[in-house]
Amino acid sequence: VTALEVADYAYVMERGRITVEGTRESLGRNERVVEAYLG
Questions:
Q1: Number of folded domains in the chain?
Q2: pLDDT at residue 16 in the model
Q3: Burial class (CB in 10 A: 0-12, 13-18, 19+), 24
Q4: Are 33 and 18 in contact (CB under 8 A)?
Q5: What is the pLDDT of residue 39?
Q6: Could you give the CA distance from residue 30 to residue 17 in angstroms, rounded to a whole number?
Q7: Which domain holds residue 14?
Q8: Chain centre to alpha carbon of residue 12
Q9: Could you give the C-alpha distances from 32 to 7, 9, 15, 23, in angstroms and in order?
């Protein structure tokens, strides 16, 4: 189980700053998030 499978909302942090935030669905559609974290 991954965090996105159980979370309603998530934040992506880089170097201590929130760079992206949103629902599981919106993060899954975000090209930057998919490339960097979801493969």
A1: 1
A2: 97
A3: middle
A4: no
A5: 73
A6: 18
A7: 3-38
A8: 5
A9: 19, 17, 16, 15
Phi, psi of 17 (to 5 degrees): -120, 145
CA nearest 22: which of 34, 8, 32? 8
| pLDDT the model gives residue 30 | 92
pLDDT in tens, 1-39: 788 889 999 999 999 999 999 999 999 899 988 888 777
Helices (H) and strands (E) in the chain, counts: 3, 2
Sorted by sequence, the CB contacts under 8 Å of residue 26 that are 6+ apart come out as none
